[in-house]
């Protein structure tokens, strides 16, 4: 019988940012279907998710895809929700808070990150003991000295596509060593699943090159370099089909009174990034605008040109945010507008 290597992946309980964890389960003749995956368990006392005297936590498979990087083949990546021993959702389980059972909400996450040189403790390409030239030539760049780390980024893209993830693009970002990939899915939970799996694959490739992946939203501190975001593009049936500016304005204004609630799940240290500079809005204010990348939520020009049929982009989530929690909060706010 053929042996399959199932990599069970979950989010730990560390704060303010959860980390990825995984372990391998060997089974015979796996069908490749989610329904044929068994529940598993792990020691939650080693991941900040349970006390030592009652340490068992459960892993519930929720998404599976091929693992094209696994040596010898027949590997599978299994994204899991963490449950308590009694089968209820663990408090660290952001996926369980998403209210989108009919997949009416579509999400596209623009995941920015830095490739980080652990020896230099700076982004790859930064000179030892100093800094490169100011940002400007690096965004969507081509050429040595500008686009640094492309071999890692291209390998990551290829593995994501081989795994069947719906990665829709990549590009070099504004700072040297900073890159972005984009994930889209029709359904908030799947968008989160695929984004986390894509993050996992990037971390694994980093092991190979001895390069860390820095998800912090402002790893270069207060210096004049852009931070990293995870812009959340979202739509539902109303946004996709209404053709009504008034319907859009009603939804947009529903975000105004819940700024704190959104910022609370939009990633740690966001005050360092949401300053009103570097294409961001101020953290404690809400604004929206057509084609305005300095607003909290941008209305894409394509949405307007299609007669107010399309999507919105919340630019506030940062690179370290949990896409599950971001989606859950956005859905809650949009639905609150529909209830008025």
Automatic annotation (TrEMBL):
Give GO terms for biological process: glutamine biosynthetic process
Has UniProt tagged this entry with the keyword Transferase? no
**Reaction(s) catalysed by this chain's protein:** L-glutamate + NH4(+) + ATP = L-glutamine + ADP + phosphate + H(+)
EC numbers for this chain: 6.3.1.2
Molecular function terms, GO-annotated: ATP binding; glutamine synthetase activity
- Compartment(s) of residence: Cytoplasm
* Superkingdom: Bacteria
Q: Which GO terms describe its cellular component?
A: cytoplasm
Q: Which UniProt keywords apply?
A: ATP-binding, Cytoplasm, Ligase, Nucleotide-binding
Signal sequence, start to end: none
In this protein, which residues make up the domain named GS beta-grasp?
A: 4-87
Role noted for this protein: Catalyzes the ATP-dependent biosynthesis of glutamine from glutamate and ammonia.
| Family affiliation | Belongs to the glutamine synthetase family.
Q: Describe the subunit structure.
A: Homooctamer and homotetramer.
Q: What is this protein called?
A: Glutamine synthetase
Q: Could you tell me which species this protein originates from? A: Siphonobacter aquaeclarae
Lineage in the entry? Bacteria, Pseudomonadati, Bacteroidota, Cytophagia, Cytophagales
């Amino acid at each position: 019988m053929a042996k399959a290597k199932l990599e069970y992946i979950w989010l730990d309980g560390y704060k303010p940012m959860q980390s990825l964890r995984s372990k391998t389960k060997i089974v015979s003749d796996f069908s490749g279907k989610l329904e044929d995956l068994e529940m598993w368990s792990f020691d939650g006392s080693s991941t900040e998710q349970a006390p030592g005297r009652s340490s068992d936590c459960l892993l519930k498979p929720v998404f599976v895809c091929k693992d094209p990087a696994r040596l010898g083949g027949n590997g599978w990546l299994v994204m899991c929700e963490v449950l308590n021993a009694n089968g209820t959702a663990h408090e660290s389980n952001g996926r369980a808070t998403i209210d989108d059972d009919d997949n009416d909400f579509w999400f596209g996450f623009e995941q920015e990150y830095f490739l980080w040189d652990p020896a230099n403790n700076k982004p790859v390409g930064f000179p030892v003991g100093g800094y490169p030239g100011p940002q400007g030539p690096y965004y969507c760049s081509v050429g040595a000295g500008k686009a640094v780390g492309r071999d890692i980024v291209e390998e990551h893209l290829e593995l994501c596509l081989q795994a069947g993830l719906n990665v829709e693009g990549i590009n070099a970002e504004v700072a040297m060593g900073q890159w972005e990939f984009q994930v889209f899915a029709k359904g908030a939970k799947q968008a989160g699943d695929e984004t986390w799996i894509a993050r996992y694959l990037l971390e694994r490739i980093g092991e190979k090159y001895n390069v860390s992946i820095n998800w912090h939203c402002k790893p270069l501190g207060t210096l004049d370099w852009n931070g990293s975001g995870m812009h959340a593009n979202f739509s539902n049936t109303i946004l996709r089909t209404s053709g009504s500016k008034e319907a859009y304005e009603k939804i947009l204004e529903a975000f105004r009174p819940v700024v704190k609630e959104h910022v609370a799940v939009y990633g740690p240290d966001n005050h360092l990034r949401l300053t009103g500079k570097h294409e961001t809005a101020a953290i404690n204010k809400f604004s929206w605008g057509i084609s305005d990348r300095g607003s909290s939520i941008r209305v894409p020009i394509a949405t307007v040109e299609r007669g107010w049929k399309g999507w919105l982009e919340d630019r506030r989530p940062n690179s370290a945010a949990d896409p599950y929690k971001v989606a859950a909060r956005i859905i809650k706010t949009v639905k609150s507008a529909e209830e008025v």
